Amino acid sequence: MQHLRVEIEPSILSADFARLGEAAKEAEAAGVSGIQIDVMDGRFVPNINFGPGVVAALRPLVNITLDVHLMIIEPERYLETFAKAGADRIIVHQEASIHLHRALESINELGVEAGVTLNPGTSPTAIEEVLELADMVQVMGVNPGFGGQKFIHNQLEKIRYIKKMLDEQGIDIPIALDGGLDMTTAPLVVEAGATVLVAGSSVYNTKDSVANNVRALLQSIGS
Ligand code: DX5
């Protein structure tokens, strides 16, 4: 079954940190199926925020997918902690784990969906050997660490390449694009093959409501 339905997945990195619970509920009320929680350690990326406590605090508030994006070195140290905190999917960076294959196996063993993601400078061939262990592949549209950055257009070709690798391996899992998405870039990434659009500032950093921003993004891709 092809993944043709496109999902908007708000990234709470761009929400008001003083009202993360409300931001998660607003996303759920807007009809999205999940939110992305960006975990940063100040080492893998030059920013620090969100830990397992935030996942645990949000878990009882919403029924949507809590998608935990680990922008930390050696993510394998914290997989069980985030799974226990309530993560439904844990996304690790190919660049952050010496034993990526084992890290993805560990996530699977925890009964949590496994995502693998790549920085803009990383070739898609770097994940060719682990696609069978993943439930989602995430392409970074920006250099990780901050919201509100400009979309890096050459990542469109990476989406196409990953789609081709998945098709060749007979693997039917969604490709997410994370970062730099707005009503101009969203159609481009969907055309390239992404079906999960992780958006922060275009959902949370405008004068309009989360619901209207999600609707505007969906309309921009004809959904
Ligand atoms: C960046 C994060 C992205 C970011 C997206 O490190 O992984 O999820 O929050 O924010 P926008 O949509 O503002 O680029």
What can you tell me about this protein's structure?
The protein is of the alpha/beta class. Helices cover 32% and strands 20% of the residues. The protein has 8 helices and 9 strands. The chain has helices at residues 20-29, 52-58, 79-85, 100-109, 155-169, 185-192, 201-204, 210-220, and strands spanning 7-10, 34-41, 48-49, 65-71, 89-93, 113-118, 136-140, 175-178, 196-199. A 9-stranded mixed beta sheet has the order 1-9-8-7-6-5-4-2-3. α6 links the parallel β8 (175-178) and β9 (196-199). The site of D-xylitol-5-phosphate (DX5) has 23 residues, from β2, β4, β9 and α7.
Q: What would you call the shape?
A: globular
β-strand amount: 15-25%
How far apart the termini lie comes to 19 Å
N-to-C series of helices and strands: EHEEHEHEHEEHEHEHH
The main sheet orders its strands as 1-9-8-7-6-5-4-2-3
- The residue fraction in helices comes out at 25-40%
| Unreliable stretches covering 5 or more consecutive residues | none
Biggest beta sheet summary: 9 strands, mixed
Multimeric state: single chain
What's the mean pLDDT score?
97
Present as ligands are: D-xylitol-5-phosphate
Indicate the structural class: alpha/beta
User: Rg, please?
Assistant: 16 Å
Number of H/I helices: 8
* Beta strands, count: 9
